[in-house]
């Protein structure tokens, strides 16, 4: 595929961002089938195109459940009861068919192996798998694959065997496979949890680039708050299925209540607190010197 074709695919993706209304949850509650208590309670959340919203909380706080609800798998696939409203660009997700929702809101799980098809011999074919199943013309499939490879920063991996990749590379291939469906929003459930620092940097850098270049809104569950400090515009904190803190990333990640909520502050915040506790005056110059 020519560079011009790849550029036109990317431009089309960016152009659609301006017309999108956002992914909006209003008063959302969710209860798994047979459960005695609700997993989510009165969630209000808005994800704008081109923005990255981080989602944190202790284990069993409802983070993964919220991802399933946003992506339409709950209750659409796994059942249960959903209250409130989940809208993607003004359309209720409950009214969409699975393939329609997948093209609006892509979901990436923490383990890339669960998301790869295991039926292809090259990374290129793996990323083409989804668009091919949409019945798109061959030229459009090829254009989408090369665009997704470029956007994820993994063009050199195109001829590689998907079974012979590092953890970070496999996660980026899974991400590119979702991107090839051209969703306006991405929901990522602990995308770096199984990655080493090098793999974590690869994924974090790719997410920043994707939000900036494509205008995709990204909701990312991430226990590594250093990653969120790098990529997130806003951070939302869950406890027992409810939002208890939310706001700009820098403010929320420095909130002293995070520890009690089972969330570790980023290293920079912990360092600043340690310096202040030792009696040394903290300044912007000191912070810059440490970095």
Question: Explain this structure to me?
Answer:
The structure is a single chain. The protein has helices at residues 3-17, 63-70, 98-104, 123-133, 138-152, 167-179, 197-214, 225-231, 249-252, 267-277, 284-290; strands spanning 23-31, 40-47, 52-57, 81-88, 91-92, 105-108, 185-189, 217-221, 234-239, 242-248. The protein is of the alpha/beta class. Strand 4 (81-88) and strand 5 (91-92) form a beta hairpin. The model is unreliable at 1-5 (pLDDT under 50).
Task: Record the strand order, biggest sheet.
Answer: 6-7-8-3-9-10
- Give unreliable regions as ranges: 1-5
The major beta sheet can be summarized as: 6 strands, mixed
Radius of gyration: 20 Å
Which structural class matches the secondary elements?
alpha/beta
The number of E-state strands comes to 10
The secondary-structure element order is HEEEHEEHEHHHEHEHEEHHH
Percentage of β-strand residues: 15-25%
Characterize the overall form.
Answer: globular
Topology:
Blueprint: H1 3-17, E1 23-31, E2 40-47, E3 52-57, H2 63-70, E4 81-88, E5 91-92, H3 98-104, E6 105-108, H4 123-133, H5 138-152, H6 167-179, E7 185-189, H7 197-214, E8 217-221, H8 225-231, E9 234-239, E10 242-248, H9 249-252, H10 267-277, H11 284-290
Parallel strand pairs: 3-8, 3-9, 6-7, 7-8
Antiparallel strand pairs: 1-2, 1-4, 4-5, 9-10
Helix pairs in contact: 1-5, 4-5, 4-6, 5-6, 6-7
């Amino acid at each position: 595929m020519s560079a011009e074709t790849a550029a036109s695919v990317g431009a089309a993706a960016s152009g659609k961002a301006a017309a999108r209304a956002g992914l909006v949850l209003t008063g959302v509650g969710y209860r798994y089938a047979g459960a005695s208590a609700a997993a989510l309670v009165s969630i209000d959340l808005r994800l704008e195109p081109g923005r990255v919203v981080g989602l944190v909380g202790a284990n069993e706080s409802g983070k993964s459940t919220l991802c399933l609800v946003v992506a339409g798998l709950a209750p659409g696939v796994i059942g249960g009861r959903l209250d409130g409203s989940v809208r993607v660009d003004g359309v209720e997700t409950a009214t969409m068919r699975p393939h329609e929702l997948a093209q609006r809101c892509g979901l990436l799980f923490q383990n890339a192996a669960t998301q790869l098809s295991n039926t292809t011999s090259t990374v290129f074919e793996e990323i083409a798998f989804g668009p091919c199943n949409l019945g798109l013309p061959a030229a459009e499939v090829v254009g989408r694959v090369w665009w997704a490879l470029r956007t994820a920063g993994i063009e050199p991996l195109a001829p590689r065997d998907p079974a012979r990749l590092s953890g970070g590379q496999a996660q980026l291939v899974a991400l590119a496979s979702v991107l090839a469906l051209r969703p306006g929003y991405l929901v990522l459930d602990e995308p770096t949890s199984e990655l080493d620092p090098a793999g974590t940097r690869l994924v974090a850098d790719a997410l920043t680039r994707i939000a900036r270049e494509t205008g995709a809104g990204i909701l990312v569950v991430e226990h590594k708050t250093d990653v969120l400090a790098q990529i997130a515009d806003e951070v939302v904190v869950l406890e027992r299925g409810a939002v208890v803190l939310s706001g700009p990333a820098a403010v929320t990640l420095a909130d002293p209540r995070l520890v009690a909520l089972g969330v570790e502050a980023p290293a920079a915040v912990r360092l600043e607190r340690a310096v202040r506790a030792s009696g040394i005056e903290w300044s912007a110059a000191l912070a810059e010197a440490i970095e």
